[in-house]
Amino acid sequence: MKIKNLIDEDFVNYKKPSMFIGTSKCNNFKCDKECGKPVCQNSELAKAPTIEIDNENLINRYLNNPITEAITIGGLEPFDTFEELYQFIKDFRRKSNDDIIIYTGYYPEEISEKIRQLSLFLNIIIKFGRFIPNQKPHYDIVLGIELASDNQEAIRMEDLI
Ligand code: SF4
Asked: What residue spans define the domains of the chain?
């Protein structure tokens, strides 16, 4: 898959230590558009070079790390490269049922067909909602961390379908 960044051991995006994979595209920078000013938390990442990495390499790298217990996939916007996201999860699930957390700026109703396709897989959590600045962070019980905007929440796939 094509990625913008890779953190082998990330401790800030989920309650369990995770491998963080940053996807490569956000099609319309919806958070900026809705706020009418540049607010995107990933604007610097968007300028970073895109790297293509084989899914098997990524998966083996994860499996060979005794520290990590989950995969977190985030910014730019994972649902804007959905075929790559889907294929990675499909490949990963052949080897592991560990949690996969997807950070999206979309709301459930905007990506309902894609959610339906992902419902085939176990142990998927999706964090939904645009980034809106100047809101009070709140603790998200599913992720076990604080989220930046009031409109954001994480939902287990089995609670969505
Ligand atoms: S969805 Fe993510 S990458 Fe896209 S504009 Fe919002 S914060 Fe930026």
From this structure: 2-160
